[in-house]
Amino acid sequence: MNPREITALIAYAVRLDPRLTVATDAEADERLAQWCDLLADVPATAPHPEGRDWNAAWAVRQHIATSPYRIQPSDISRPWHAFRRDILSRHVDPTPNVDPDDEAAYRAALVTTRHAIETGQAPAQTRTALPTGTRAEREQADADRLAQFGGYRPRLAEYRPVAAERRRLVVAGQPDPYTVPCPWGACRAPAGQRCQTAGRPRTDFHPGRIDAARTAQETAA
Q: Minimal CA–CA distance to 81: which of 59, 104, 105?
């Protein structure tokens, strides 16, 4: 919070607990400096993925309503840091919208996203829910996916590397990137073909394509 927001928060606390009223401007300035020092990294509000959003004013009210002791800035910062740990434990870094082959830009995008979450500027991205349906239904869906590749003939695997790889993904319960086109603008490999970098086939897939395949698989389930 900035000094203006903290000043408003102190005024709210004084309104709820008149014992916090100070006698002189010097005392008020000293208190404001102390609160600014301890609350500089605490946002006024922050989103929670389950809707239990953070609000510094609510933390003030909660303390005054439940504690006989006069509120201190640490009574606000401690709940915030507990809230921050909770949302970070739920966060899963999404695939940045940058070239995954540019490692520096990719890492910078991840750091920027995490900083936005830590400072309450953006909501945490939680894990995608498991596919719906019973276990038997999910196993049947996997069996149907396997059936698309026909009977397994290990001796032919080296002559059918794509089919062998796709079968391996199904057996491992992983999404099959071959089922969807690559959404990365510099690649745009169509379904059924490998991702490319500078026109050359990659040995792996762009992260965005894996995410798209996972979404398609869960939607189909």
A: 59
* CB contact set of 32 (below 8 Å; sequence gap of 6+): 3, 6, 7, 10
Give the pLDDT confidence of 137-181 residue by residue, as tens digits: 666 666 666 565 555 444 444 445 666 677 777 767 788 898 899
Long-range pairs, 102-108, Cβ under 8 A, ≥24: none
Q: Give the total residue count for the chain.
A: 221
**Taking the complete model, does pTM exceed 0.85, yes or no?**
no
Nearest of 133, 209, 134 to residue 178 by alpha carbon: 209
Q: How many CA atoms lie within 13 A of 200 on its CB side?
A: 4
Beta-strand relationship, 54-55 and 200-201:
unpaired
